[in-house]
Automatic annotation (TrEMBL):
Protein known as: Endonuclease V
Stated family: Belongs to the endonuclease V family.
Residues making up the signal peptide according to the UniProt record: none
Keyword Signal among record annotations: no
CDD domains, per database record: Endonuclease_V
Keyword tags: Cytoplasm, DNA damage, DNA repair, Endonuclease, Hydrolase, Nuclease
EC numbers, comma separated: 3.1.21.7
Source organism, top-level taxon: Bacteria
Record bears the keyword Cytoplasm: yes
Amino acid sequence: MVIRAYGTFRLDAGFPGWDGSEHGARLLQSELASQVQLSDALRMPLRTIAGFSAADTDDGRVRAAAVLLDVQTLEPLHAEVCKFPAPLPYVRELLGFRALPAMLETLSALPREPDLAMVEGHGIAHPRRCGLATHFGLASGLPTIGVARGRLAGAFVEPGPLEGEASRLRDGDQQIGWAVRTRSESPPIFVSPGHRVSLAASLEYSLQMQCGHRLPEPVHLARRLATQPDEWARPRRRGMRDTHSSRLV
DNA sequence: GCGACAG
DNA sequence: ATCTTGTCGC
């Protein structure tokens, strides 16, 4: 696959500049965070968006899923699932190192690059501003938004009770994302820029992709595919091309 | 006992 | 990530 940023990152070579240790991972995150772009680099009009999610497999690897959707209709156009060995056990704040390789495999397997990527996990709403979605954005070069179900960094006041209400997620005097009420009866989700997307746009696109679930539709579908690949195999949506990757599964 | 917990 | 009971609403 084409790696446009992240130095000379290659899947077969691992993370450049990482010695494999947890401490080294934290150092690299701080370095990567300085490369994040918080201005919008979206090609308008937006035609496609892809959701990405990762889960553990029973054999200790990581299973990632990607779902490509039409931005206008939110209909899924294509889906991919890949498995990849985990470079690290799960460590809080270091999820990017564990899940990124599998996720990049699903991206490279898509028939075309999406105009925007939405990753389940935090973007800059991370202690060192380098969550999974930021790793993904820097590695792929794609405009990327992070969407997470739980808070990792920052503080927020509870957003209003109605769908679409949001409040700032802030760390000290800096805003690092949003707490967003996507369903009136559910706790808020946490949205932040991954790379090449502004704070404002990250919120706007998350709300635009809402489809009745707590998570925006691209991430909702990717999560379902990553955590319950068997369920997905059963028919549920028309117009869906079943194109599971077999190369690495 | 209670809060916190990215995937 | 995953396991777990019961409940409510469409």
